[in-house]
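We emphasize that the prediction below concerns an isolated chain of 292 residues; any contacts that depend on oligomerization or on bound cofactors are therefore not represented. The input was used exactly as deposited, without trimming of termini.
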Amino acid sequence: MAWFLFAAALAAGCGRGGTSPRSVAFDGDRALQLVDVQMSFGARYPGSAGHAAVQLWIEQGLRDAGWMTEGQDFSFEGVPLRNVVGRLESASGPLVILGAHYDTRPRADRDSIDPTAPVPGADDGASGVAVLLELARGLAVARPACEVRLAFFDAEDSGNIGEWDWSLGARHFAGVLDTDPQAVVIVDMVGDRDLRLPRESNSTVSLVDSIWSAARQLGNDAFVDEAGSSITDDHIPFLERGWPAVDIIDIQYPYWHTTQDTADKLSADSLEQVGTTLAAWLSSFCVPPADG
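Result of the prediction step, given as a token string:
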């Protein structure tokens, strides 16, 4: 699948009159390969060997793409946890956060055969990480007129197991964030071959409108213009602080929280629809101000 370049001309008439930013590149095949790498680490729930390995791999991937990295260390129930955050040097403008969780669920509690086995996490974890890491390559070159931070959250997916709650990493991140973001975009479970992304009902309507509009202009029909469910996910801690946030998620993925959440259920086309939509949306959202 060829490299796709999305010009800021997609957003003609939507900006504030400044010079258009460079295009952002995204390749769905590369993103799918990044899913495969994560799967090679095995289960990635907190405390596992795969969890530690994927942390280091994300940090190295960001640095290789030209990003500075920051680790946010915290813990729960005595288990060390870590958010990984990427920043571009000298970035300026409104703060935009693109986030995904990298941990996987320690128990496949929706699995009819082996509900105590860990979830492999191809879609539920690896797909969102792959989209952000592939976007990192293009954003480092395009340098959008926003301060984009890529946030890889820990401890999203152990909720309702013992004392664990959902979205612990995102909650920690939001709690220490010292700058008001103009937009927070969460990508979670976005690689299904039969991808279908309705408008998640808790999400900020204006953000949903702008992202789904970018998808429509590109013909990315996985983004369906209909109301979806209300989801407890990593966007909730940001909404609770009054910040605009959206959750891009296919909650109807049939292998969710089962041992069948494996890479063969995913497609490069689905990942590319999400990545190219976010690239086009950033080109319209992050428009530099007019000179003078």
